[in-house]
């Protein structure tokens, strides 16, 4: 384990009066769907928005801050994550129905639960969220989408706390959504989002949710240790309209293995931890896939999985995985 992960964080005493739960050297693998990776130097579960703001304001500017969610589209490198890692808990997961087919939703609410709440309220437009197994804050930051819908279709506004502990507000124009991207600054931790759908029929919405569940189960390795879609679908003309999985398949990467990491046979834009894979193996396999796709089609795939932290040991130490005859 990287040395920075084995000592008491030298900044922890500055946060002693802040409400919430602090854990030094906290393992993050259990919080990642890959079940791989290192520890957080200091993991913080804030008690409320005021405590989060106070924590960020008290933290020295040189201490990095990383926020994580459900871990469904996350790769934590083996060397761990230096600085403060923020994990929003149930206090940030409320779902409140407002007038005009709107919801006020905490950033830690699961996308799936919001889809069900919208069905129960007979509000349409949220069905696509049933196919996105993460928390709303992360979905907003990356304009997550699936099955014909995107966050930008239902977004009204959002609020969050910036690195200086100040409250920030974002309108639809401020968010400036594009494919798998928003203009909401990286240093802002979203805490609450307002979303709006349209009047719908609960039975039709239920049928749509069932269709999304079936489609996801048929096409994706839903019962394996994976991190969701590994790469974004390319927009370059070189892709000739092909999706990431089609380019990966054409490059001969379906079922490709590196150590205990594998490209899914069922959907080759998914990486699988077959049992005991390290985060470095998973990332190295992803880079190998990128190399082969680039050589085959000229397309440079862009990671959709969020990768955080430091590789085990020296940053170049992951590279030899490609040279050990385990492909």
Instruction: Provide the spatial order of strands within the biggest beta sheet.
Output: 6-7-13-11-12
What is the 3D form? Answer: globular
Largest sheet: 5 strands, antiparallel
In terms of DSSP E residues, the strand content is 15-25%
Secondary structural class? alpha+beta
The CATH topology of the largest domain comes to Uridine Diphospho-n-acetylenolpyruvylglucosamine Reductase, domain 3
Order of helices and strands: EEHEEEEEHEHEEEEHEEHEHEEEHE
Count every helix, treating DSSP H or I runs of 4 or more residues as helices: 7
Beta-strand segment tally: 19
Report the mean per-residue pLDDT as an integer. 92
Rg for CA atoms? 20 Å
Q: CATH class of the largest domain, anyone?
A: Alpha Beta
Low-confidence stretches: 1-5, 314-327
Q: Can you tell me the CATH architecture of the largest domain?
A: 2-Layer Sandwich
- Helix percent band: 10-25%
In the residues, how many domains can be counted?
3
Distance from N terminus to C terminus (CA atoms, Å) equals 25 Å
């Amino acid at each position: 384990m990287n040395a920075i992960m084995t000592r008491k964080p030298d900044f922890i005493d500055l946060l002693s009066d802040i409400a919430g739960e602090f854990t030094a050297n906290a393992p993050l693998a259990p919080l990642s769907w890959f079940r791989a990776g290192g520890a957080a130097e200091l993991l913080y579960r804030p008690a409320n928005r005021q405590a989060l703001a106070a924590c960020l304001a008290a933290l020295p500017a040189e201490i990095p801050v990383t926020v994580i969610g459900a871990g469904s589209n996350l790769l934590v490198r083996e060397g761990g994550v230096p600085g403060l890692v923020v994990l929003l808990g149930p206090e940030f997961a409320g779902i409140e129905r407002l007038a005009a087919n709107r919801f006020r939703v905490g950033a830690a609410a699961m996308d799936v639960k919001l889809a069900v709440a919208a069905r129960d309220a007979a509000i349409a437009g949220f069905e696509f969220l049933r196919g996105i197994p993460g928390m709303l804050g992360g979905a907003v930051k990356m304009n997550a989408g699936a099955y014909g819908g995107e966050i930008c279709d239902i977004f009204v506004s959002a609020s969050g706390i910036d690195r200086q502990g100040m409250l920030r507000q974002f309108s639809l124009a401020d968010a400036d959504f594009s494919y798998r991207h928003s203009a909401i600054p990286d240093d802002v931790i979203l805490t609450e989002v307002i979303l709006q759908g349209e009047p719908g029929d609960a039975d039709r919405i239920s049928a749509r949710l069932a269709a999304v569940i079936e489609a996801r189960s048929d096409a994706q390795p839903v019962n394996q240790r994976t991190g969701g879609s590994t790469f974004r679908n390319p927009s370059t003309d070189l892709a000739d309209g092909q999706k990431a999985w089609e380019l990966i398949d054409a490059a001969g990467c379906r079922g490709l293995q590196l150590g205990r990491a594998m490209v899914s046979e069922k959907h080759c834009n998914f990486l699988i931890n077959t049992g005991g894979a390290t985060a470095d193996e998973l990332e190295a396999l992803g880079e190998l896939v990128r190399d082969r796709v680039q050589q085959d089609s000229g397309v440079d795939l862009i990671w959709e999985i969020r990768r955080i932290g430091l590789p085990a040991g020296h940053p170049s130490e992951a590279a030899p995985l490609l040279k050990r005859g385990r492909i």
